Amino acid sequence: MAEVLSQSEIDALLSAISTGEMDANELKKEESQKKVKVYDFKRALRFSKDQIRSLTRIHENFARLLTTYFSAQLRTFVQITVASVDQLPYDEFIRSVPKMTILNVFEPYPLDGRFLIEVNPNIAYAMLDRLLGGRGIALNKVDNLTEIETRIMTQLFQRTLESFQEAWSTVVELDPQMDELEVNPQFLQMVSPNETVVVISLSTAIGEATGMINICLPHVVLEDILPKLSVHYWMQTKKKSRLPEEVEALENNVRNAPLVINVELGKSEISIQEFLQLDIGDTIELNSLIDDPLIIKVGNVPKFLAQPGKVKNKLAIQVTEVIEEGENNE
């Protein structure tokens, strides 16, 4: 994209040309020359801008869901927002992670491979302190977690995967499962060092503690669903055509659907006093005549008019007229 100049920069440029400080011919010559851009093969850009924007949108939703989840679990002020979305080699990401941190590794079924959520110790131990009844103070803890602490942290972050699943539901139905919780990134090798990963950094504040939550998504794991992250996929409105066999099966199911049909012989209104005094053998006078047509209701909706009769000594009705929509026959 060409650089857009502000009005003051445009005025300064015109002034420099008019005073002779800059030569317009030299500018045209520079513009006609081919511009060379340095490309670093170690930092191969595997994700398009379209896909980065889609990943940003997905994880902005994830950040909102996490804010709600942690606020309910920790019962304190929580604010989580997307700070940046970058693509870089996996080795570079691992080297940027603190030597002792909280690494949640999970498998995003049905995708092959593993994702990683790295939680800064400043944030992780503030969460742990809140869960254990403290004020949510970030502990200066650098040793390994105890078995109890590991169990508590695993359960806490396992449930964040429900929010991750919901955030991704518009793109793909995932069933993420926690694989392991690690504290030393040197012992973690998810993909090859040169593999491109996209890192979503979430700026997190829990009470007075602040830090980052980093989500690492390897390109090799997302490769199969990358087309779904483009704008073209989101804007598609092409209808899915049904096969003739599917249409026929649907029609047969509709034809065989049961319907409740009622026939009204007539109506009557009586007082509560009269109703309470009813006894066996009493007769209730209806408001319709013998010659009046009967109303056939399908699912409590008037559909036909009919006349009563008998077929083989059984009570029956004969449809005489179809009630058009909008007619009131009650």
TrEMBL record:
Membrane-protein topology: Peripheral membrane protein
Q: Which InterPro entries match?
A: CheC-like_sf, Flag_FliM, FliN-like_C, SpoA-like_sf
Position of the signal peptide: none
Record-annotated Flagellar motor switch protein FliN-like C-terminal domain positions: 253-323
One Pfam family this chain carries? FliM
The record's keywords, sorted A to Z, are: Bacterial flagellum, Cell membrane, Cell projection, Chemotaxis, Cilium, Flagellar rotation, Flagellum, Membrane
Q: Return one Gene Ontology term, BP aspect.
A: bacterial-type flagellum-dependent swarming motility
Q: Name one GO molecular function term.
A: cytoskeletal motor activity
Cellular compartments annotated: Bacterial flagellum basal body; Cell membrane
Under the heading PANTHER family, the entry gives: FLAGELLAR MOTOR SWITCH PROTEIN FLIM (PTHR30034), YOP PROTEINS TRANSLOCATION PROTEIN Q (PTHR30034:SF6)
- Give the family this protein belongs to, as stated in its UniProt record: Belongs to the FliM family.
Recorded protein name is Flagellar motor switch protein FliM
Output the lineage of the source organism: Bacteria, Bacillati, Bacillota, Bacilli, Bacillales
